Amino acid sequence: MPWQYMPGDSLIRKIMLAEKPDIVEVTDKYTLSMLGVMIRIGKFSQLGRPILVHFSCERMDDNVASFLTGGSIGERFARRIIGNYTLPSFDYHIANSTYTAEEFYKADEYVSAKKGPKWFLNKTWRWLRSPRVPVRERVIVCPRGVDADQFTSDRRSTEVKGEMRKRAGIPADAKVLLYAGRISPEKNIALLVDMMEILHRDESNDFRLLVAGAGPLADWLKEEGDKRVPGRIIQLGHLDKETLSNYYANADVFVHPNPKEPFGIAPLEAMASGVPTVAPNAGGILSYATNENAWLVEPVGEAFAKAVHEVVADPERTAMKVAAAVETARANTREASTDRLFAAYDQIYEDFDKRKELFTDADAARVFDFSKLKDA
């Protein structure tokens, strides 16, 4: 929290002064974000002026809608925080997907709209000594990657399939659907119950959903599942990586209900594991998921149930999509994502060195008209 790292004798200050980094990256919009402000406004002068990078792995507007308030009020609140605080606090912003990056662009447009109060824009951006560089030139999209050695179709085995069913207490001939992730409001968990209620009506297949993970809606999911589809939704709790990897490869279908996923590592892990993947046609997963390697549908129970039926009913088409999914995962490994990240750092370092005065001249920033920068 800010009061833990802002004091002069804090551990973070001691580490920073010992390391004297050329680049400081903050992967947080909430607690640690004040670190960028401290350096920008000269409250950490012993450190000099490192390049300040914010890595965004989620969208504030989605978090506000899930945990505080939705609608226009929540959206305006998020736009103001991002537009008047986060954007000017750092030199560059790295986003884990185009979907995540879009929040920066929308916030920038919101705070600089012709109808908006330009005086407030200038007041905040001047106080934070913001870079005199357009936002779109300071945002870099750098997708994440999957551990393709850990998550692989080579783990498929009759033994694991039997163990999964035995652990879940379901019949050997059941069609196993798997969801792996937090059981939390922002994950659109209610869709899973709606989907299973529809699939339960199918008399030709015995569909069961295994849920790997935990979260604040775990009790709600159990109560709803027991009430609407008794015995069809089985919560496994948190699984270690080895077990989860095995379960991915031996499920019949992987379902991912969240249409606002910032990137979505779980669907990519599923694709690497060779399991047919059903997911929303929205959000950060579109960085790698297409209609050629996954089943992308509207994020509602009926559409998900229909896609699951398609997976089961057409083995030939399913095999083609799964093969394409594995190839996609191989092109998006964590090694590839690391290469992309270092390339992003190289790009940042080169640009900062070339235009350093636009990022570091605090006196010029104090009097600069940032509304003109927006209009340009």
Give a written overview of the molecule.
The protein is α/β, with parallel strands linked by helices. It has 2 domains: 2-145 and 336-375, no CATH class; 153-332, Glycogen Phosphorylase B (Rossmann fold, 3-Layer(aba) Sandwich). Helices cover 50% and strands 12% of the residues. The protein contains 18 helices and 10 strands. It has helices at 2-5, 11-19, 34-40, 60-67, 71-89, 98-111, 118-127, 158-168, 190-199, 218-228, 241-250, 265-272, 301-313, 315-331, 334-354, 356-360, 362-367, 370-375; strands spanning 23-26, 51-56, 92-95, 139-141, 175-180, 207-212, 233-237, 253-255, 277-280, 295-297. It has a 6-stranded parallel β-sheet with strand order 7-6-5-8-9-10, with helices on both faces. A 4-stranded parallel β-sheet has the order 1-2-3-4, sandwiched between helices. Helix 10 (218-228) links the parallel strand 6 (207-212) and strand 7 (233-237). The chain is elongated and about 70 Å long.
